[in-house]
């Protein structure tokens, strides 16, 4: 009887452990991320005062009724059920930034790894609208992540020298992903940003 109880308790404990969500594509190895980081242009951010979120059209239709947000929710969730409008009606989402697990899509935001304003002040202000649209809806790099809504809001448009995810164990993946996106779009970084990213990559 005792053995059965212990086995049952162990099964419950294991099932309660949140399983990490599938990672977005394009996360480089640590070595490649360090190489990419070293090749990025380091200069002061330039804010021309003209940034507007609407300059980065986002949550475009991807397929059928599904837009980018719903596509990421389905990609990163577990047992996600959607209705005819592609809205997620049930599922489970693990937020890698803070380790929280959610069962309501309304508790989950889609984070832009490199925030739209940060992109603007590091080179995107010279892009075409088409390129900004691509950046805001990019499913091919580690740019879009399903995370806890208030954690995403706390991050806002901050770079890694001003904000880091609550889970220190995620620093490595966070830094590799940030570097990969900046490298893919030839965006610049500040010296403080590079220092923070270097420290985070050293946790890998």
Automatic annotation (TrEMBL):
Residues 103-198 form the GmrSD restriction endonucleases C-terminal domain. This is GmrSD restriction endonucleases C-terminal domain-containing protein. It holds the Pfam family GmrSD_C. The keyword Signal applies. Keywords: Signal. Residues 1-16 form the signal peptide. The lineage of its organism: Eukaryota, Fungi, Dikarya, Ascomycota, Pezizomycotina.
């Amino acid at each position: 009887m005792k053995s059965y109880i212990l086995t049952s308790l162990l099964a419950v404990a294991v099932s309660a452990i949140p399983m990490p969500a599938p990672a977005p594509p394009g996360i480089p190895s640590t070595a490649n991320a360090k190489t990419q980081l070293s090749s990025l242009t380091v200069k002061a951010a330039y804010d021309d005062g003209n940034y507007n979120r609407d300059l980065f059209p986002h949550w475009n239709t991807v397929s059928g009724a599904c837009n980018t947000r719903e596509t990421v929710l389905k990609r990163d969730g577990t047992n996600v059920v959607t209705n005819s409008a592609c809205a997620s009606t049930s599922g489970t989402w693990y937020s890698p930034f803070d380790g929280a697990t959610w069962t309501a899509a309304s508790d989950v935001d889609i984070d832009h790894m490199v925030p739209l304003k940060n992109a603007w002040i590091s080179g995107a202000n010279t892009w075409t609208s088409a390129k900004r649209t691509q950046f805001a809806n990019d499913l091919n790099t580690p740019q879009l992540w399903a995370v806890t809504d208030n954690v995403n809001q706390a991050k806002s448009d901050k770079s890694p020298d001003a904000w880091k995810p609550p889970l220190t164990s995620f620093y490595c993946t966070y830094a590799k992903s940030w570097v990969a996106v900046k490298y893919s779009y030839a965006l610049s970084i500040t010296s403080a940003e590079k220092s923070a990213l270097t420290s985070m990559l050293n946790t890998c």
